Amino acid sequence: xxxxxxxxxxxxxxxKEQDRSKTQGAGEGNLVNTAVPQPKEKKLKxxxxxxxxxxxxxxxxxxxxxxxxxxAEKFDILVATQKHASRKKGPDLIDEALDLLFEKYETK
Length: 108
What we know:
Layout lengths: L12 H12 L44 H17 L4 H15 L4
């Protein structure tokens, strides 16, 4: 009677595994990847030409607004159309809308 579990396992299991690995490689033994590594693609850096040397930096803060669903959808459509038409993005359009509100309610 075996005293431990390892006594039940035949001792030639490693030889069986080596033989099996040789047959899996279609008789070629252990296959080694000999392919030449390909160089990674470099990302292109696009230069943006502006009228001035430095881009204007606006000091901005985050302010949370919670518009209704239909107004948010309309704003997203407006931003998408104006991005291509006048190159204005969301923050610029919000600034413009706030300026119009300030003029309407005469707030300085």
